[in-house]
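INTERNAL AUDIT FORM
Audit reference: QA-55
Scope: verify that the stored structure record matches its stored sequence.
Auditor: D.O.
Record contents follow.
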Amino acid sequence: MTTATIEQLLARVTKPARYSGGEWNSVTKDWEAASVRITLAYPDCYDIGMSNMGLGILYDILNKVPDVVCERAFAPWEDMEQQMRSTGIPLWSLETRHPLRDFDVVGFTLQYEMTYTNILNMLDLAGIPLWAHQRSDEHPLVICGGSGSFNPEPLAPFVDAFFLGEGEDAVIELADLVREWKGSRTPRAERLRALLAMPGVYVPSFYEPRYDDGGHFAGLGPRVPEAPTTIHRRILEKLPPALVKPIVPFLQTIHDRAAVEIQRGCTQGCRFCQAGMIYRPTRERSPEEVTQAARELMANTGYDELSLLSLSTTDHSQIVPMVNQLTTTFPNLKVGIPSTRVDSFSVDVANAVAKGKKHTLTLAPEAGSQRLRNAINKLVSEADLLGAAENAFQRGWTGVKMYYMVGLPTETLEDVAGIIEMGQKVKAIGRQYVGGRARVRVSTSNLVPKPHTPFQWARQDTADELAVKHQLLREGCRSAGVEFSWNDPRDSFIEAVLSRGDRRVADGIYEAWRNGAKFDAWGEYFRGDIWHAAFETTGIDAGWFAHREWDTQEPLPWDHIDCGVTKAYLRGQWRDVHSDKTAADCHHGPCNVCGMQKFDVLTGTPGVADCNVKLGKLIEMRRGARTFDGEMVELV
């Protein structure tokens, strides 16, 4: 394969910059001089993958090691795939354009289950056997990490190993192992066995699933003595230095701006939210650290817009001084806050960083009634929402977008109708302040029960059940003058099966891919009929995984994965769904005993018993006067 051949392909496809490499801040090292060669692969197109901060962080860390080459690869769009298959050119890395099969490790990021067929497609294009047992010493190790790894079983037959949890330290340990293996010519089988001793690593080939007489999952256990029965996710005690020299793409990506992670973890305790469970505990960066990171990011990228990333940015205990410091230090910098609580305080923060015209403010009430919000532990009242909306319109915003979920446990049509009523009230408030320019949009997603959440036992509504709710919302929102958008229940169903499936679901994934499934996260490519046929052909009862309420005592396909939050805690939260009992945010109050109070044990750091005390300064005053550019606001 020559560079000239690849150049010819680039001239035949749309957006050739997806495949060319050479971007600002990308790192190209001497291939021959490297001891360790790793590709970070994202199973979606470049436009999506380059917006993933995790990939950028690992890329930066690995390339700082002198003898490590770390490069990138993304799923080629259909036009490029056709060119590659017709010319026989295998999938290559962006930096040195070596085939992925020439690397020591190919690491995939699992952020969304609907990208799983893209993983198979990328391996096939790379000339790497899809099934792990078919790979030999000459093939790279295929390793996956990310949130999807917290139920690794649907991909287990395709993957050599999974990293569970935060990988900043783990990737350096892996590089050290690879260097050692290559020096001693360690065979593949022994490499996999060695990974069993690495904390946070799950090697599926050393585990055997069991099924009962009815053919349903009954448990999973080690096949060799050295394989641990439980794999604990890796947790960093302290956030590493922020990424300040990210790659600047040649084309516009989904998040085309600089970003700094100001906080990791969330303890609000929304019962549907997987990220809020698997990324605990909360760890923060100081305003000074964020400001310094912003200074370096601006110098290294040329961006004039900065996103403050977190699962809930305005929950940061020092968000007020942080925003003040950023806006004072960088008067011309546009600061974005992508995730906020539904309250007036969050609107104040958004207003403090707003530059230029104010268009749409996004809020996420999640449910249409107070009863249902309590059931899902979304601690937001109607007064919070209406107060936030009024504050926004009063301060010059002309639009409010509200995110909701449908298909939640205990949900009734009255709860769904509450979404319409809330939209009407917000629209009326908007008209008071901005007249006919007021726009209100309701966007709904369908519940997909996720592992390691209280809703991991919940049933998913069927497409017919969801259709009734969507019809009610369509008609009601139209009458109220509120815009409405929703997710297709068909892909939500497939996502549920892939989220909660056991190892046999891999056969369905393979069959779907073999029959053309790819880019399933994209509406124009998703083919529900292919998936249903694949499940039927492989004998998978998809409804068993999606449309029933699971027993809290039955074994789960992901029971061998310990995210830090205990199953007992999740069971208790699931019971509370059917009562009025809610759980307060432990970041601002007493410990909820979710399991993360043993954080010192998980990290191996002795002498600290409480994760809240261990991980930083709590908010000293829950209520008190703070200042935004001379204006007093209430911190609620």
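Auditor finding: record pair retrieved intact. The first strand starts at residue 36 and ends at 42.
Action required: none
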